[in-house]
Amino acid sequence: MTPRLDAIGVTTGDLTASLAFYRRLGLDIPADADSAPHVEVTLPGGQRLLWDTEDIVRSFDPGWPGSKGGERLGLAFRCTGPAEVDAVYADLTGAGYRGHLAPWDAVWGQRYAMVLDPDGCAVSLFADAS
């Protein structure tokens, strides 16, 4: 038997802020999820994205040291083209989210940008350059 990746988890210090950020990226997260300590959404293709508050993680792992900064997991959102990378980056940074790397044409053939979610996790935006 081979395990299969089923879900990606995000631990957040501010669930409402985190969900608002990911809604802005187009994820269909119910409005009533903001008051839940654990949230799950099924993504196209069947995988799930999960959110837990830091308090929930500490409830089952009392020794959890918390986030110490630096990247541990990266999420990447494919855009339809280079113009959408620029537009989504502008929308997010215009809404007050911190840009990490402004859009650029990467040497690997993509238009690429990075924005930080409310917990400081880098979220990549990308599209094929042509």
Features:
single chain, 130 residues, alpha/beta, 2,3-Dihydroxybiphenyl 1,2-Dioxygenase, domain 1, 2 domains, 4-stranded mixed beta sheet, 3-stranded mixed beta sheet, 3 helices, 7 strands, 23% helix
Note down, in words, how this protein is organized:
- This protein has 130 residues and is α/β, with parallel strands linked by helices.
- The termini are far apart.
- A four-stranded mixed sheet has the order 4-7-6-5, with helices on one face. The protein has a three-stranded mixed sheet with strand order 1-3-2.
- The longest helix has 13 residues, at 82-94.
- It contains three helices and seven strands; from the N terminus they run E-H-E-E-H-E-H-E-E-E.
Short description:
By secondary structure, the protein is α/β, with parallel strands linked by helices.
